[in-house]
Amino acid sequence: MKRYETDVRDGVLFLETDDGWIEIGSLDGICELIGGETYVLEYDEQQRSVSWLDTDAEGKLSFDVRETLREMSYDKEFVANIESVDADTMDGEYSMRASVFADLMIAIWESKGDL
Question: Domain of life of the organism in this record (predicted)?
Fold first, then answer.
């Protein structure tokens, strides 16, 4: 299954598609939409009982949003969802594409692998 990469150029996040690269939005703006530079997930006792999950004593897992976004890759369905959003439509101060991308990332992270 093909995975589609991300790229950051001059502070702007791009997403690979079958036809080339599309602009998502500024990495600064996406971090703001997500809620900051660091994202924290909370796991209950049962969830954190798996050996591979490295949470703190309170069951929290923190990660750097910028670093994580730079390293992520996506499936065709995710790319198609983002690509279908008009890059010129604005959602307040951010493009609708950046807002949808941020919302989907939050949903993915909060699902903790259970989409």
Answer: Archaea
Closest C-alpha among 53, 46, 8, 51 to residue 30:
8
Residue whose token pair is 């798996």 = 50
Does the pLDDT of residue 43 top 60, yes or no?
A: yes
C-alpha 76, offset from chain centre: 15
How is residue 102 annotated by DSSP?
Answer: H
Q: For residue 111, how many other CB atoms are within 10 A of its CB?
A: 10
Cβ neighbours for 114, distance < 8 A, ≥ 6 positions apart: none
Q: Where are the strands (E) in the chain, listed by range? A: 4-9, 12-17, 20-26, 38-42, 60-64, 73-74, 90-91, 94-95
Q: What is the mean pLDDT of the segment spanning 46-56?
A: 76
The model carries a pTM of: 0.90
* Whole-number Cα distances in Å, 55 to 51, 66, 75: 10, 20, 27
